[in-house]
């Protein structure tokens, strides 16, 4: 299975994460593929957490 990981900078502002999640859902609906998100700092999930989830769900790296 394939997946896409979107990585954002991260922000303490809740609204910033909400927008990022909306963008990822929009993309996922358009490409009919799994889209995962991660943040470099100030928000979760971390990049490491996202990679772990992707591996658990059978995404091939």
Describe the structure.
The chain is α+β, with helices and mostly antiparallel strands. It has one domain (3-56). The chain is 46% helix and 20% strand. It has two helices and two strands. It has a two-stranded parallel sheet with strand order 1-2. Strand 1 (3-8), helix 1 (14-31) and strand 2 (34-39) form a beta-alpha-beta unit. The protein is flat.
SSE layout and pairings?
Layout: E1 3-8, H1 14-31, E2 34-39, H2 47-56
Parallel strand pairs: 1-2
Q: In a nutshell, what does this entry contain?
A:
The protein is of the alpha+beta class and 61 residues long. It is built from 2 helices and 2 strands. Helices cover 46% and strands 20% of the residues.
Q: What is the N-to-C order of secondary-structure elements (H for helix, E for strand)?
A: EHEH
DSSP helical segment count:
2
pLDDT under 50 segments (min length 5)? none
Structural class: alpha+beta
- Rg value: 11 Å
Count up the domains: 1
The largest sheet, given as strand count, sense and whether it forms a barrel, is: 2 strands, parallel
Whole-number average pLDDT? 95
Helix content class: 40-55%
Number of strands: 2
What does the overall shape look like? flat
Share of residues in strands: 15-25%
Main-sheet strand order equals: 1-2
Euclidean distance between termini CA atoms? 10 Å
């Amino acid at each position: 299975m394939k997946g896409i990981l979107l990585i954002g900078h991260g922000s303490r502002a809740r609204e910033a994460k909400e927008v990022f999640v909306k963008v990822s859902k929009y993309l996922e609906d358009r490409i009919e593929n799994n889209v995962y998100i991660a943040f470099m700092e100030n928000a979760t999930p971390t990049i490491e957490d996202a990679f772990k989830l992707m591996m658990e769900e059978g995404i091939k790296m």
